[in-house]
Amino acid sequence: MATEIRPHTATERATGAETIVEMALRSPERHTGPALRFHRDGSWRELSYAELGSEVRALARGLIALGIEPGDRISILSSTRAEWTLADLAALCAGAVVAPIYHTNSPEECEYVLEHAGSRLVFCEDAEQAAKVAEVRGRCPELEHVVVFEGEVEGALSLDDLRAKARSVDPSALEEIARAIHPEDPATIVYTSGTTGPPKGCVTTHANCMSTARMYEDELEFASGDEHVVVFMFLPLAHSLARVTQMVVLDVGGTIAYWRGDPSVVLEDLASTRPTHVPSVPRVYEKVHTKALSGVEEASGLKRAIFHWALGTGAHFRRVEHEGRVAGPLLRARHALADRLVLSKVRGLFGPDIKLALTGAAPISRDVLEFFDACGVLILEGYGMTETTAAATLNTQHGFRFGTVGRALPGSEIAIAEDGEVLMRGPNVFAGYFKNDEATDETMTEDGWLRSGDLGSVDEDGYLHITGRKKDLIITSSGKNISAANLESALRDIRWVSQAVVFGDDRPYIVALLTLDPDEAPALAKRAGVEPDIAQMSTDPRVQAVLAAEVERVNERFARIEQVKRFTILDRDLTQEDGELTPTMKVKRAVVYREFADAYGALYD
């Protein structure tokens, strides 16, 4: 059936928390110092581990006072912030199962999760999010309570109200519930982003979450005690990777540093919070990469030459380091100069204490990874699914290979089926889809392997290469199979491009729909000699000529059958609000194909 790749290492822990509840309640006893760092009322504030423990216990008892019982579902509808973490841990400590909702979801999408999960209570960030719930509440018969993090909303409780209710519950009641929670009990129902249909609720257990967290701790050396871990948290906490990262940080006694929620101050927040680790999705790194290179393109010839010399020197120096060799005095001197002139400025975008960054959820160009590595920022790519409780494979500081998504996490396994599909098995694999046994049976094999839906191969050292997604394969009229994801990733590397969606099923050649990057549009307009209006630029021949030259350069990296023969430029970017992107910036291909069918069709006229 499959060629099995055994795990490259295995670890067993004799001690340590077996449930998230145990970890959350015991962390204040095991750790000191700041647990959460966040911005409030114009300044950065911190919550210590002792304060975190008190807050979580109080809110959990408040939930118990409201009648929340073990196994009840609780939802959280909020952007990433400290209160999200407090609500999450409190709900789990009260024995509830957390069903998160992305803060960008529409009222109808919120209704789907609330109704399908049967949530009895929902935490809302503010009045804006509470209004979404109010709009659909009549169609969610099991929803009884709304609690808001900030502001006052009629008919909703505040966090202070919840704390007040906690006084009626004896602390021993919380301890009794905590002791009764088993590692195999459900901890959360995470709904998939729905790129291929209605969202499915992935049930992950306490054992799934803690096993995955421990895998990360071992592989990324989080638990070594050599340094204080500070993780910059701006991924949506409704996403599995952010959620598990949160657990890892609290388990090892690190600090979660939350951004302010404003995209315009992300780089400022990075510098202010001084993270050691930054988890993100590829699009963020791609935009930083584009921004760094765009400045070079606008510079003088001498400055461009210095930049590229410095980048080449940095790449040489890092290659020597990664190979375990010692750089000679001449290379060290050249690198020191390159670092002072160029490399440190790029590295400084991540703050002064950055150790490494993590990326997943979508393909990222090897060029982007090598660029940042040359500047001294190692970005490690991993791979996984909501069904594997976030990443199941990972590159590490001491074992990485650009162009791959790493090796299986310790204690887990990877296999490649006969048709090339990636299969995964291990303690991180979910318990099944909520209220959907048929989908669970379709996803899991009889012997416990998870079908990923992705195509890949494993090299002789156990590194996984993702070559495409089964449902995203384009089969041209000549019968050629083409990976859409790899081609689209290369097109997004173009400075002027924000999104790229290729098409070609049952057609003689590949075409692409491109959108312009709003941040780079003014510079593109200047280069093309047009007005900086994206709607007008999308149809201007001078803009199209600039893009055509860039697309041709991308085509040179692919076989002729895979090359983009024609493209069109949209008059706007793709958005979550229009249902074209998931909250993690993945394209909903079926939606785009349906919505822009006429535009694709015109490219074959």
How would you characterize this protein structure?
This protein has 605 residues and is of the alpha/beta class. It has 3 domains: 20-181 and 228-276, ANL, N-terminal domain (Rossmann fold, 3-Layer(aba) Sandwich), CATH 3.40.50.12780; 283-352 and 355-469, Rossmann fold, CATH 3.40.50.12780; 476-602, GMP Synthetase, Chain A, domain 3 (2-Layer Sandwich), CATH 3.30.300.30.
Q: List how many beta strands DSSP finds.
A: 27
DSSP helical segment count: 21
Main-sheet strand order equals: 1-18-19-21-22
CATH top level of the largest domain? Alpha Beta
Q: What is the helix content?
A: 25-40%
In this structure, how is the largest beta sheet organized?
Answer: 5 strands, antiparallel
Taken together, the total number of domains comes to 3
Distance separating the two termini: 44 Å
Output the structural class.
Answer: alpha/beta
CATH architecture descriptor of the largest domain: 3-Layer(aba) Sandwich
Q: What form results from the Cα inertia axes?
A: globular
Instruction: Round the Cα radius of gyration to an integer and report it.
Output: 25 Å
Percent range for β-strand residues: 15-25%
